[in-house]
Structure formats: C-alpha cells, structure tokens
Amino acid sequence: MSRLTPMMKQYLEIKEKYKDHILFFRLGDFYEMFFEDAEIASKELEIALTGRDCGLKERAPMCGVPYHSADSYIAKLIDKGYKVAICEQVEDPSKAKGIVKREVVRIITPGTIIDPSMLNEKVNNYIMTYIENENGIGIAYADITTGELKTTDFKNLESKKKVLDEIMKISPREILIREDFDYNSSILKDIQKNYNVLITKYYNRAFEYKNSEDIIKKHFNIFSIDSFGLNDRKLCVIAVGSLLDYIYETQKVPLLHIDKINIYNYDKYMILDKFTRTNLELLETIRGKDKRGSLLWVLDKTCTSMGARTLRKWIEEPLIEIKKINDRLNSVQILYNDVILRSELRELLSKMYDLERLSSKIVYGNVNARDLISLKTSLKVLPEIKSKLSEKKFELGKIFEEIDELKDIYNLLEESIVDDPPLSIKEGGIIKSTFNEKLRELRSAITDGNKWIIQLEERERKNTGIKSLKISFNKVFGYYIEVTKSNIKNVPDTYIRKQTLANSERYIMPELKEIENKILTAQEKIVDLEYELFNEVRNTILNNVNRILKTAKNIASLDVLLSFAEVSSIYRYNKPKVNNSKIIELKNARHPVVERVAGEELFVPNDTLLDDDENRFYIITGPNMAGKSTYLRQVALIVLMAQIGCFVPAEKAVIGIVDRIFTRVGASDDLSQGQSTFMVEMSELSNILNNATKNSLIILDEIGRGTSTYDGLSIAWAVIEYINDTKILGSRTLFATHYHELTELEDRIKGVKNYCISVKESGDDIIFLRKIIRGGADKSYGIQVAKLAGLPKKVIDRAKAILKKLETNDINNKRDYKDREIAAINLLEDTPDNTSDYINEKLNEKQINLFDYKSSEIINELKNVDIINMTPMDAMNKLFELVKKAKAI
Ligand code: ADP
Ligand code: MG
C-alpha cells in the first residue's frame, strides 16, 4: 500500500479543520491548493491544474498562485462567495527539523476582508450575526477595518419587517447564523433575494448565552457586562458574543480597536424601508445603480473617506430628535456663515488619511513605516483644527471637546520615523538616528568604516603608485581592490587575487576584510535594532488606538457638517426650521438632484403646504411628464435633508418632524422576486398602511396602475379614505394619480386638496410649465405628449381622430363608468390596445419634453459661438439674446 508523504499528511490534517474553506497552503514562494480546492480554484481563477506526487497511487490535483500576487486571486474567490484560509509556514525553514511547521493564520470571508485593495474606502464592510429565538431577534455587526461594533434587538417577532429594513439598510456582506437555524423559513431568505450576501453557519455553542457573556468580558476586559448596559439585553449579548467569537476565529489576533459596543434603538432614527430608500435614490440611482444622480452624489463634498462613510450613514439614518437635528443645523450654520473657517478646515481635513483604517492596520500588526508617516501627517493637523474650532466652541462643542490633539503620538512619530521610509520594515532605514543612542553609535561606526575605506584607498594608491586603483563593494565578494590589467605588475604580494575580469583584476587584503567585517556586523545589528524600535513605537500607538479612533469619529462628523455647509452655500440652500408641528411648509423649493442634472436656471421651483387639518392630503394630477413624480420626491427629499441636519433647496422651509417617510413610486416590476407588479405594489401599500402614523409622510405615485381601471380606482379611493381617517392614520400625504375621477374627493373628505401641474396648450403642442397650482387637471394631453415622444405621424393622426369621435359621442361625460367603457370599446374596436404602453415606453426612453428640446437649442447655439473672433460688444449682444431665449422657455 502506498503511504502519504509527510507534507501531504500535514496538509490533510490542517484541511480537516477548514473543510468549508479553500486552503491556501504556503510552499516556498507559492500558495498551493490541492484536491477539490485545486479543482475549484483552477476553474474559478482560470489557472492551470497540475498534479503532485503525494505518496498515493494517483497524483494529487494541484494548482498554485505566487504569494506576492495572491491578493487579487483571493479577492476573486471571495467575490464568488468562497472563504479562504491562509496557511503559512510559521517557522524559519532553514531552522526547521523535518517538515516546516504550518498554521492557518487568517481566514478571509466577504465580511472579514481587511486588504484595502479589496475594499471600497468610502463604504463600510460589515459582518453581522443574526439570532432569533422566542424572545425576539438580535443583531450585531462590525466593520473590522474600522473597529465599529453595533447591536440592537427587536422584542416582538411581529416586527420582522422592521428587522428586514434594518438589515437591508446595513447591507452586511456576510451574515452569521446558528448551525441549526431554520434559514429557509426566515427573513434572511428574503434578504438574500435582494442582494448578494453570504450566509455562514457557525457552530451552535458560539450562540449560547454563557459563551457570549464570557467572550465579551474577556475581549473588553470588564468584570460585568452591565458596564455596557447589556444586562437586560440578552439577544444583544448573544449577537455580540457570537460575532466576537467568529472574529477571533477568523482573524487570530485580538482586535483591540473594537473597543466598545454601541447599543442602539433602531427607532431612534427615522425608519426608511427598502422601497423608500431605493425609490428616493438616496445612495444610488434605480436604473444604473450609479452614485451620480443620487442624493449622496449631490451632498458629498467630504474631504476624507471617514467622512464619506459617515455621510452615507447619516443619509440612511435621519434623526427624529429635534435637539439633535438643531445641533447639527446650528453647526452647519456656523460653518456656512464663516467662509474662511470652512475653507481652512476643509483644507486641513484633506491632508488627513483614513485614521480608522490606519488604526486597524496597527491592530493587525501589518502597519509599515509609510503608514506611520501617513498617520503622522494626519495627526499634524489636529491641533490646528482644534484651535480653529475653539472660537466656535459653543455649537460645535462636542466635536471640539472630543478631538484629541494626540500630540504625544505625533511627537513620538516625529522623533522616531524617518520622513521617507522604505516599504519594508525589516531592512532598516526607517528609524531616525537621534531616536536611539545605540542606533546612532552603530550608524557612526558605519560612517567611520566608510571613512577608513577611503583612507585605505588613498594609502594604497600612494604605496603602489597605481593612480587608478579603486576600492568597491559587491554582494558576492564584499569590499575589494580593483586594478586595471596594465597596472598588475605593481600589485604587492600582500594582495590576494579574487577574480579576473577582461580589463582588470580584483583583490582583497586582510585589513580591508577587517573593516568590512565591522561595517557589515554594524549593518546587521542596525536592521535588527530598527525592527525592534519600530515594534516599540507600534505598540505604544496600539495602546492608544482608542484615542485615535474617537478622534477619527469626530473628524468624520466635522467633515460631513462641512460638506453640508459647502453644498448649502454653493447650491443656495437655506436653513430649515425644524419643530414639533405637523406642518411641512416649503417656499420655492427645488428637487436637489433634478436641479443639478437639469441645470439650476431651468428648474421651476414650487411651494408646498401640508398640515394636519385642511391640507393634509394632496391629490396631484397632470399629464405624463408634467413633473408629478419630481414634485413628490422633492418634498420627501427636503424633509429627509432637514432631518439629517443639512440645509434645504428652498427659500423657506418649516418642517414638523417626520417619523417615517413611505413611498410607493412608479409601477416597477420586481421580477427577481417572482412577484407581479401589482402584487409588489399592493404589498408595499399594505406595509405603508400598517406602519404609518400621524407623524409620517406618505408619498404615493400612481398606485393602482397595475390592475384594471375599476379595481385600481376603487383601491385608490379606499386608500385615500383610510389615510384621511384621523382616527386611523391622518398622515401627511402626497398622492399623484392619473385617475381624474379622484379629484371628486376634495369635496367629500376634509383635508383633501386638489393640485395639478400646469401645462399650456399652444396650437397642436403642449408646453410644460412645471408649476403646481390648485385644482385638478381636466385633460390628460396624452396625444400631445405622444407627439413629443416622436410617435409616427400616422399614429398621432389616428389617435386624434378617435379622440374626436369619443368627444363628439360625449363618452367622457357619461357618469357611469360601465357605460363609458362599453362605449369606448365599441369605438376603439379597430385600434391596437397597446398604444399607451408604447407612448410610455417612448417617453421613458427618450425623456423628451419641450423644455429639454428648447434648452438643447440654446446649448447648440452656445456651442457655435466663436468668442475669439467677436468684439466685446458682439459678445454682450449674443449673451443678451441667449438670456432672453432662456427666459422665454
Ligand atoms: P410625471 O411624473 O408627471 O410624469 P416627472 O416628475 O417624471 O413627470 O417629470 C418629467 C421630467 O420633467 C423630469 O425628468 C424632469 O427633467 C422634468 N421636470 C420635472 N419637474 C421639473 C421642474 N420643476 N422644473 C424643471 N424640470 C422639471
Ligand atoms: Mg410620474
């Protein structure tokens, strides 16, 4: 029988413990994979599959990647949902007796990536644990690259929808569950349908209370978990404990930068469900999933990646406490007013590196001297930032107080690390001589040695009379004396020949070797000493990493506030008044994103007045493309902006705190979920009706579109009644609809007001005025819009003819819907019934409207202006003419 080779035996022993992982087994300069791992990796990474004798009859399938370029291969595997275990040689091969000892030193999973090249610096990468039992649900999540750790619990199981929203908001890359958890009937399954998240089953014991409590106590070095306020939050304890357990298991080093548990109540923030976050395009657009075109895109003028990550969080977690909102608004006001302070602070911030991720490198022990220089550069600006803030202490107080100048750390770095160190920390050249007496002595020994060599060269030239004699150094021979062929006759006997070259001979002599020895030993000692000193510096910083992180957090907040002030100033936003009323009053308000895309001058501002009485509910009608959806979102976005503490695009804004914003916008198909449009629409609607309160803002855009006219109309009607019933809901609502019949409700229900977005008919065309006015729209202008969309003339003409017939037959005036529909069907028998779909499609595709058309004319004209060949007067005239045209749109 064949026997396994010792190395294979070692491999299989380790692999046994990491069955679910692809094991990267270090062999010299390569990571090798064997057997099934090799088969998977060769396929996924497109690398050659070979074999290796392993002692068995058949060769073991094998493939490998060079260790120095392993990162990109690991990234690919992680991206495809695999987990990777890195197995290193943990002793020096030259000193090993028998086979080199190997151990798994780190496990990489989607939620535990630390390599910057695999991460997006502006987005957090979260690993989460999920625990569900008869008492409720607990979650905990951490970003191990920044040290953030948060947890919350949901007491009753009815709130699963809330849990789902919360998890979707956090969007962890990986979720940990108990091995025996019934995943298939859990909400996690719904989450996985929505986006790509890895579900990892982890051993049950990690989810036991005692185990969790112990690990928390150990990690944070505390006597009782009460110190975190966790005493009555068992679910949080389990969630955090199991998470830490997993982090230890995968990272193999204690993560000191995870230094506190942030327990939060998810209802401390405005709750935004998944649909609302998507529909309002907060972080990315619906269509292209691009940042460009989202609210984040408009608001992001942050200078650091810590700030960028914080901004995302703030946008997804608007506040609901007036005091906190006003604190932020007041801070923005100060930074808004003081242009100089703002630009100075922003300049200082842009000099800072990512303190959070630098801290995590320090914790992991993989920080190099260049990172420490980045750290030093970042710390250098802290005192300046602090002193600039000191005058504004009052409102920006908390940030001011919590920024630690970290002068001691800065000084340590300044004293110890050279300004431009090499990448490697094991080859010397990183510590300043002045930092350590011993190091200084060793370095001067080298300088002396070099001086001796020069003197020796001088002396030998004189003694031998060979003027071209040279002393040089190479790695093979060390120092040697080089003499050209023509001078060999003058070489003394004491020289020992070492090497013959084409034109010269190389020699050594004992004295030279003695000096060399001194220099080289000193060099070796320097390298060791520098490494030791570097580690000392690193450890000192490690012990202070929590101070760095706290400061980083405050810098991040400052960065976001500055970004708000900057954006508010360049886009002319104003400070909203946020209070406890039920009012939303906006004067000349604009859509923050559309105005950026369309151009500020072209955007038509509009007013809003919602309250809890007469003006609770807007029914908004108007033709396709009039601007209904834009108006709805504009109101929602302005409320959200105010509650994250940003100024808003309106001349005046009074906002009574909103506890939730709900939206149901457009009839988008969610085919990936296997549900029909209508089904999706109705389930979103029921979510709204079940969860909204008097303090909510509801945005309904064209609900009921997904079914037949009668159904849709009746549902819409009933919904309006329900929302307006103050005993049940009474939420402030904006409702855009194409059912003109609904405008009748104004007379029937108190609080309902009809509005429409005005258009002007001009002959055969229509012009969108974009102004919202009181009253219902009387016509849908479908044919005119269709014409704008470029529908063939034949279709337009035919449609007009049919419309005329309809109108003369007075079908529109028939009160009874049934009669009306029958009459219409009779008339339209020979007309294809998908005309309106076609129009809609065309419209969406081209987004054509008169506005765009006319402005593009002006743009074309602008493009053709030949400024170089114009007199100033001509230029003035041209400009005058263009302005006139623009105003006329
Ligand atoms: P509707 O929902 O009524 O069909 P949209 O809200 O989708 O219309 O608006 C159609 C287009 O009109 C938008 O893409 C935008 O470019 C433009 N638009 C909307 N409102 C305004 C406005 N107030 N000022 C300028 N352009 C606007
Ligand atoms: Mg619309």
Automatic annotation (TrEMBL):
Domain DNA mismatch repair proteins mutS family, by residue range, is 696-712
- Positions the record marks as coiled coil are none
GO BP annotations of the record are: mismatch repair
Q: Quote the function comment for this protein.
A: This protein is involved in the repair of mismatches in DNA. It is possible that it carries out the mismatch recognition step. This protein has a weak ATPase activity.
Fetch the Pfam families from UniProt.
MutS_I (PF01624), MutS_II (PF05188), MutS_III (PF05192), MutS_IV (PF05190), MutS_V (PF00488)
| HAMAP family (UniProt xref) | MutS
Single annotated GO MF: damaged DNA binding
Tell me which UniProt keywords the record has, alphabetically.
ATP-binding, DNA damage, DNA repair, DNA-binding, Nucleotide-binding
CDD domains the UniProt entry points to: ABC_MutS1
Similarity annotation: Belongs to the DNA mismatch repair MutS family.
Residue positions annotated to bind ATP are G622, P623, N624, M625, A626, G627, K628, S629
Q: Determine if Thylakoid is one of this entry's keywords.
A: no
Q: Which GO terms describe its cellular component?
A: cytosol
Source organism per entry reads Caminicella sporogenes DSM 14501
Protein name in UniProt? DNA mismatch repair protein MutS
